[in-house]
Write a structure and sequence with these properties.
CATH architecture of the largest domain in chain A: Alpha-Beta Barrel
Structural class of chain A: alpha+beta
Distance between the termini of chain A: 68 Å
Oligomer: homotetramer
Number of domains of chain A: 3
Organism (chains A, B, C, D): Luteolibacter flavescens
InterPro entries (chains A, B, C, D): PHP_domain, Pol/His_phosphatase_N, Pol/histidinol_Pase-like
Largest sheet of chain A: 10 strands, mixed
CATH class of the largest domain in chain A: Alpha Beta
Protein name (chains A, B, C, D): Sb-PDE family phosphodiesterase
CATH topology of the largest domain in chain A: TIM Barrel
Helix content of chain A: 10-25%
Keywords (chains A, B, C, D): Signal
Shape of chain A: globular
Number of helices of chain A: 8
Largest interface: A-D, 54 and 54 residues
Radius of gyration of chain A: 25 Å
Amino acid sequence: MSNRIAAILIAALSISLPHIATAAEEGIIRLEGDRIQKERKHLRIPAVNGMQAIKCDFHMHTVFTDGHVWPNVRVQEAWRDGLDAFAFTEHAEYAPYQADVKRDPGRSYELAKGGAAEHNLTLVKGIEITRNTPPGHFNAIFIKDASKFPADRKEELDQVSVDEAIAQDAFLFWNHPGWKAKEIPGSYEWIPFVEKLHQEKKLHGIEVANGHGIHTKAIDWALERNLTIIGNTDVHNLISHEYKGHRTMTLVFAKDRSAEAIREALVAGRTVAWAGKYLIGREDNAKGLFEAAVKVAPVHHEATDRNNAKRKFREVTNDSDLVFEMKARGLPKIVLNPGSTQLVSFPAEWTEVEWQVTNVFVGTEKRLKVKVSLP
Amino acid sequence: MSNRIAAILIAALSISLPHIATAAEEGIIRLEGDRIQKERKHLRIPAVNGMQAIKCDFHMHTVFTDGHVWPNVRVQEAWRDGLDAFAFTEHAEYAPYQADVKRDPGRSYELAKGGAAEHNLTLVKGIEITRNTPPGHFNAIFIKDASKFPADRKEELDQVSVDEAIAQDAFLFWNHPGWKAKEIPGSYEWIPFVEKLHQEKKLHGIEVANGHGIHTKAIDWALERNLTIIGNTDVHNLISHEYKGHRTMTLVFAKDRSAEAIREALVAGRTVAWAGKYLIGREDNAKGLFEAAVKVAPVHHEATDRNNAKRKFREVTNDSDLVFEMKARGLPKIVLNPGSTQLVSFPAEWTEVEWQVTNVFVGTEKRLKVKVSLP
Amino acid sequence: MSNRIAAILIAALSISLPHIATAAEEGIIRLEGDRIQKERKHLRIPAVNGMQAIKCDFHMHTVFTDGHVWPNVRVQEAWRDGLDAFAFTEHAEYAPYQADVKRDPGRSYELAKGGAAEHNLTLVKGIEITRNTPPGHFNAIFIKDASKFPADRKEELDQVSVDEAIAQDAFLFWNHPGWKAKEIPGSYEWIPFVEKLHQEKKLHGIEVANGHGIHTKAIDWALERNLTIIGNTDVHNLISHEYKGHRTMTLVFAKDRSAEAIREALVAGRTVAWAGKYLIGREDNAKGLFEAAVKVAPVHHEATDRNNAKRKFREVTNDSDLVFEMKARGLPKIVLNPGSTQLVSFPAEWTEVEWQVTNVFVGTEKRLKVKVSLP
Amino acid sequence: MSNRIAAILIAALSISLPHIATAAEEGIIRLEGDRIQKERKHLRIPAVNGMQAIKCDFHMHTVFTDGHVWPNVRVQEAWRDGLDAFAFTEHAEYAPYQADVKRDPGRSYELAKGGAAEHNLTLVKGIEITRNTPPGHFNAIFIKDASKFPADRKEELDQVSVDEAIAQDAFLFWNHPGWKAKEIPGSYEWIPFVEKLHQEKKLHGIEVANGHGIHTKAIDWALERNLTIIGNTDVHNLISHEYKGHRTMTLVFAKDRSAEAIREALVAGRTVAWAGKYLIGREDNAKGLFEAAVKVAPVHHEATDRNNAKRKFREVTNDSDLVFEMKARGLPKIVLNPGSTQLVSFPAEWTEVEWQVTNVFVGTEKRLKVKVSLP
C-alpha cells in the first residue's frame, strides 16, 4: 500500500497532523514539525499616553561593511523579533570585505527595502559615521544619501562628516560613548567636540545601551542636555547567536509606526531604551511605561497576619513583556516577570504604595520611584 | 572582609542582582535565581461577545481519594496555570488510601477554600459519582454536601446517586464517555441510563475532553441534546508531570469569575473545551472565540507574483494563547501559533476569505468554517 | 470513511506518528504529543577514582508529616530527576495533618518501597529529629524503626532522640544549621550540644546545602571535625514547582548504588554537595570531581596574537552536567556549561595552568584551585 | 560610593556573580547573563565498532552564491552545533549576488579555512554542480579547484561538469533527488544520466535527506547500487532560524575526524543520515548505531502482573542524543528520548527481544529490526 493512498485518505478525513512528518507526496517525508516556521512573535509593550510603543533598532551591520549577514537576514530577524522599525548603519569609513563585496554603505538599504515593505516594517536610511575614538562613532538616521559621507578617517573630516549628516537633515546620535573606556583613558567623557555639536544643536541623541552594555554615565548627559535616550544592538553577528531573550532596542512612543511619526517622537525625546531586564529613560517616559504595564487590582481577600495585623490581598499584574523589580518599604521585594501576576498582601490601612523600581534607570545613579494608589 | 559588609555596600549602591546567589546574610548564600518563583502566568484567551473567558477545570483528585497530592497543591497549580475556577471531585464510592487518610469526599474543598480565596480563585464544591461502567462516572458540581452521596457501587444505587446530585441542585455531567471503549465493548454508546437522565433533564453536560483524550463521538451527542461541552484534566498526579503545555480545561464565557456567573454560562452552554491544540465547542461559541482571537489586518503591501497576478499582503494575527490551523482554498495552510503574526498574500480581487479551521471541532466529524471579510 | 479505517491503514504502512493525536481508536483522539512521558533523564556526573557518583537526596517530606504529596510522588520525582538513592525523613515530633492522616513517621517508607524497587532506586529508612532551635533539627538515616523516636519536643528529650538514632546505628547529620540565623540570634553557631555529639562520635555529617540555601559557615565546621558534607532538598512541595534546574543533592562516591556502598562512602566522607551551580566538598573530593569532568585537549591550532606572541589553542571540555567557573591569571574567565566545550588559546610557553574554580567551595572562604598540565 | 569601589570589593570577596550585570567598570553595566556565550554543545553519538561518529554537513551556501551569510557564520554554526566536518558547496553555475559580490565558488573555503582550523573543524573543499532538473544537482567534495567548473548550465556541459569533479578525484553525490517531484513530473526517477554515472563508477553517494525532506525512494537506489547514504542541510539561511533541534547531517563512522579518514569512511559507505528523529542507513550501519546507543540493563526487579504472570523489570537506556521509537510484539511502544532511560517489564521467560525500530530506515519501505538478548 503506497504512501500516496494514505495521504489521500488522511486528506479525505481532514485530520490535521501538524507536528509530524507528513507523507503527502510519494516518496518524500517532510519534517515540518522540526522546522522553525516563519512567524512574528508578539512583543507586548503597552501604549503610553495614547502613543504606541514602536520597537526600534537603529544600529546594525551587514556584509556591506563588517557584519556577517546579507541584508535580508536583518529583515527576517527584525520581523521575528517583533521590531517595528530599523535602520542599517553601515560604516561610511570602513569596509573590511571590499576585496569581495562592492563598497557602498547605502546598498543594504536598497537591497532590503522591498522585504521591509513586504513585512510591514519601517526601514529608515542610516549610516555610521566612524571616526577615531575620541570622539568615536555617530549614527545618522533619516539621511538622504549614504554615498555623500567621507570614506576615510582623517581627523579633519570629523566635523565634515557630522555636518554632512546635518545637511541631509539627519537625526544624529552618539554611539556607545564608553566603548573604549578601559583602552583609551579619558575616552568616556563629555568631550569638547561633542559639546560643540550639542551647542550647535547638531546632536540629538545618545546611545546609552549598545548591545550587552549599558553606558550609565551617558544617562545624565542625556538628561542634562535634553538628548534623546537610545538603545540599539549594533549587531554584526546573528541576533539568535547573541541574545538569550529580547534584543537591545529603543521603545519610541509615537502616533504610529511611520517614519514621520517615529522621527517626531525621537525629536520630542519620547523613548525608553531596553536592554536585558533594564529600562532607561527620562522620568516621564519611564513612569508612563511602568504605569501602563503594572496594575494593582482591587482587594480580593483580607486576612490577619501572625502579629494580628490586618492585611489586604491584591493582585499585582504585568501584562507586558518587560520585567519590573520593585521594592517598597514594608513589603517583600517583587520580581514581576513578563505576562505574570503576583499576590501582594498590603497592610490594611495603606491607601498607596511607593515602589522603587530598581531595574528602571531615570538617571545615572537614580532608579524610578512611583506612587500608586491602592484600589 | 565579611560578606555582610559586601552586602551592605551592594545595598547602598542599590544595584539589584536578581538572578544570583546573594550574600545578604552572614554565612548564607541564597540561590534565588535557581528557584521557580510563585507567580501566575497569564493565559490569554479573549472575551467573546462581552463575556470573559473563565478558565475552568472541574475534575481533579487529591489524597482524599486516589490523587497523589494534598489539596493545597491543586490551588497552587490552578493559580500558576492561569485557571480562574476549579472543583475537587473526589470519588464518592472509592477511597483507596482510607487505611491512612480519613474518608471524606468533601474534605479537600474544606482544606483548600482558604487558599483558593487568597489566590482569587473560585472554588466550586464537587464530587465524582463513580459508578461501574456502563454507565460510568458523572461529576456533580455546585453541590451542597458531599457526605450525602452513597459510598458504594451497588447497581441499584446508580440512580440514587445521580438523584442526590439533582436534589442538591447540582450541575451534572457525564465523564470521559469513551474511557473504556476498548475494554468494555459497547461502553462508548449513548445508553438508556443516560438517555433517561437526559429525558428527565438531569444531565447538563458531557466531558468531551478528559486529560489527554478527546472523545469525539460525544461532541455530536452534546450538540444533538443541547448538553454543555466540557473539558477537564481528571488529574490524579501532578499537572507539571503530565502536561507539556496548558492543561485540558473548559473555557466558560461568563460575565465574571464568580460561581454564579460560571453556573449561568454553563447552563446556557457557553463553553469551549480546550485540549492540546484542539478546541471543541458549539459552532456559535467556537466561531466567537476564533473571531475574537484571529484578526486580519488591512493591506500593508502589494506585489505581483510569478504569474503576474496581483497579490495583497495582510498580517494575520493571533494575540491569544490558542493555536489555529487554517486552510483556505488557494492559500497555503497556516499554523497560527500563540501570540504570533503571519504574512499572508491574498489574491488582489478577494474581498473575503473562508477559513477551514482544522483544529476546531464543531461536531464529531465537523471542523469550524468561518468567512472573514478582508479589510 | 471512518477513523478506524484510517488507523488500520496508518498501522499497515508502519508510519510512526509520535507527536500527534492519533486516531487509532474509533471516536478517540489521544494527545500523546502533549503528554510528558515517564522517563528518567540522565544526569551525567563522572566517576571519581573508580567510584561512581551516586546521586542522593536524604531529606524529604510527604503528607505523613508536613509535605504536600503522597509518597509515590517522591519516587516519581527521584526517578525523573536522575537520583539513585533517597530517604524520607518525616518529622518524629510534628504531624500537622494528623486530623486527616494517621500519624506514622515510618509510613512513607512502607508505602514507597515497592515503587522504589521497581524504579531501581535505593530507598533508605530515615527520620527527622525535629528539636527546637537551637539545637535545631537532625536527620537520622539508615535507621531501623521510625516508631521508636519520641513524638514531642520537650527539651529533655533532645538527647534521648539522638541517642535513639545512635542505638539504631543511624548515620546522623545536623540539618540546615543556619536556617534561623536571622530569627534566633546565636542559633547559627557550633553550640555545646552539637560539640558534645561530636565528642561522643554521634554526629557524622552536616547539611551545608539545604534547598536553595548554602550555609557556608558549616563548611569549615565539617572540615575541621571530619564531618561528611551533605546537600539535600528538604522538599515539602513539588520539585517541579521549586527548581529551575537540578535539585539540591549529595553526590556520594561509592562502589555502587546499594545502601551498603552508600553508607560506606558517607562514613568515609566521600561526598560533594551540589546546589545550583555550586559544588561544596572536601578538597580531595572536589578536586577529583573537577578532574574527572573537565579535560584539556591537546593543541589543535597555533597562532600569533596582536602583540606577536605565540598562542596554542586547546579545547577545554566538560562532558558532565555540572558547571565550572574557572579563572587563571592571564586568561579570560570561563563559564564551562554542562556538556560543552570552549576554545582556549594559551600562551605557547605554558606547560600547565592553575585554575581557580570559583563555584567550587572547599572551605567557608576557600575555592578550589587545581593545577592542570597542558598536553 | 562608586561602582568601582563595589567592583573591587566584590572581586576581593571572590564572589562570582556570573548571570548578572556586573559593575566592574566605572559607568558600564555588562549584561553577560543575557548574552549567548560562544560554546560548543556536545552532541552525543556513540562510536560504532571502534569507529567514531564524525558529524558532517557537506552542503551549504554563503553570500558567494545564494546563501544569506558570510562564511564565518558557517564556522560558528558548525562549531556550536557539534559538527566535526563540513564543506561549502557554492553553486558553480549560479551567483545571484554577483552585482555586489565577486563571483568565486571557491572563495568561501578560503575565507573560512583559518576559522575552521582554529575551531578544530575539518573543512573539506566542495562545490555544487547545479544542472537543470533533470538530472538536477550534484555535490563534489574533496575537490582541488572550484574555479575549473563550468559556470553556465547549457545541457551539453552536464557531463563536462561531473567529469571535472572526477578529474579532481572528488567524491560525487546526487543531491535531493526528489526536490522537484511535484513540479517536474518524472524528475524523481533513476534516470539514464545518473545510471550512466553509476555504470562508470563516477557516482559515489546520494543525498537521501536534504534539509527538512527525506527522499525515501533514494534509499533503495543507494542500497541497490552501493551508493553512500548522505544527509545534509543545504542551508542558505541561518541554522538557528530553520531547525528546532539538531540540523540534518551525515554521521560518518571513521577512524578520526581527519579529511582522509572521513573520505575512507564515505567510500566504504559507513554512514547514517540523521534528519529530525529519523535515521537512514545501510542495515549494518544502522544496526551498529542502535546497538551502540541503546542498552538493556540486567533485571533489577521482578513482579507478578494482574494475570498472575511473572514479569522482569529492566532499564532500557539511550545515552545518545538520538531518538529511538521501538516496538516489540507483546510490549508497549517506546519512544526513547535522548539521554534517557525507561523501565520495561518483560515476560519472565523471555531471553531476547526483537525490536522494530520504526524511526530507523534501512530501505525505502523497511525499518530496522534488531534482536537483543536480555541479560
